[in-house]
Amino acid sequence: MSQRITLAHGAGGTRTEELVKGVFLEAFGNPILEELSDQATVEMEGKRVSLTTDSYVVSPLFFRGGDIGKLSVYGTVNDLSVGGATPVYMSASFIIEEGTELSLLKRIAESMRDALRECNTRIVTADTKVVERGKADTLFINTTGVGLVDDHVELSATNIEEGDVVILSGTVAEHGAVILAERADIDIPFRSDCAPLNGLTSVMLRAGGVKLMRDVTRGGLATILNEFVDASGKGIIIEEGLVPIREDVRGVCEILGMDPLYLACEGRLVAIVSPEAADRVLHAMHCHPMGRGAAVVGRIVAQGRAVILRTTMGVERVVGKLSGENLPRIC
Amino acid sequence: MSQRITLAHGAGGTRTEELVKGVFLEAFGNPILEELSDQATVEMEGKRVSLTTDSYVVSPLFFRGGDIGKLSVYGTVNDLSVGGATPVYMSASFIIEEGTELSLLKRIAESMRDALRECNTRIVTADTKVVERGKADTLFINTTGVGLVDDHVELSATNIEEGDVVILSGTVAEHGAVILAERADIDIPFRSDCAPLNGLTSVMLRAGGVKLMRDVTRGGLATILNEFVDASGKGIIIEEGLVPIREDVRGVCEILGMDPLYLACEGRLVAIVSPEAADRVLHAMHCHPMGRGAAVVGRIVAQGRAVILRTTMGVERVVGKLSGENLPRIC
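The joint structure predicted for all components is written out below.
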């Protein structure tokens, strides 16, 4: 591990993993944290409670289709939702740079308020800190979410079997492409996909047969699928032609020299579903506004312990985790 | 309210209150958040669960008697504890500046590990973000705590009555004085009081008769007592001669031009206790290492709706909340 923190350590790929394992797991390691899931399901007095935390440092604070406030609510709601939990309560903590305009904070707080209503959750405890000019970048927000997991929900990588299908809820890479395009001052015709997934996960869980879900955030689809491989010990084959990507997003990615498979979404999920339940789950997803573009994009294979992309030309190549790329402050 | 955020908005006094009420309560307001307590007690499936969140931005990161890591564990444990909850789980989120040394992160993570063991709690979910050089000040940590509140615990400002006594668990102002002295490069013979209060609150609650507790943090004893006044509608008389302050702390405060009543502690609490329980609670506190210096420092009066300090000269003066002072990044 290098001796100083680089931006790659925050990008959600292999360097982040090194940092998390080498420093934080090393110190705090316990069976729950070691699952390295985006949320922890713990028992409290006989109830299954889910906890998740995220600090939001996105830059710019406002972008096409969203802002740091919305992101801080949706992101935490989504982490709970893909863990099979119903979001109930949230905490919020604000680190504000001296000199920040109050009107900007108000706009962001109002955006959070709207997002909270949309997700049917609320902030019950909060904190505010101010640091000197130049010691933070306007505003960072932490939200921590608490959810309840229904008794019948059983999501675990250990249930994944050969033949299970990989379902993606919609087009990928919009959020990441929007952030990068805005930083590069490129005009774009599309918006961030940032949105809450709690409604969608709830209809999917009701349909049954869902074995594991993740929201496709830092590191993009390629990284998340690799994490599925790590957790399950199985391989995944993805059909490139089936992964939905908007043409204009693909175009911007080409200009920016980015592979859309590594760009973050903030309102998409990927699920591993048993083959017999696939049609039922897909139907349920298509009936929900957040899952209209849902599609089977691949399947689980016994061999490989890797993510294989089968291109439209029929060529197969291994797709690794995001590694060393400079994609800071996407969320 | 001024149009831009100043450091005073983060100091825990009246400006912080303006910001919280004017921006965040305005947007997120709900009955639980409106209590403006440092923790929220909510019901989840019939159980009373306590939630609290804090971002730690203390500068310097290491100080006599502690560091940001210890503080981030103790502070959150203490917020739960004074709310009558037993800390159970914690989340941690790290915002790291590019270029930060890994060895520094490791030292801080190890310090958190030791503090977690001491408090008998654990981190079950975590997050790491990296921002560019110059966009944060080395490291900010958010911790959010989840605790369980026993059925028999009933802490509320509405129970406060005339004649109740004010008990302080020990000397005040050490933490704040250490931070300010280190920034001013003044040599000091004392250490921060930062320490966990969960053991102490647990023996106090067992003793019975405790109506309300708070840890004495940002804004110091004077501000916290004023918040008791706001919440209860009663007045408080404090005997200056009874408030324990180390002589060397008093000396440093004089050099720095600070009133120790407004300086933060990170391991002290103040409690309102019914008069008939006072001896019992004090005895229980004196038997606990964190409460050896506990003392009655004042009492609740019906009139006034203010905090009155009776000086050693017998003069009475109103002591307001911290207002406009520049005490940023104490925790």
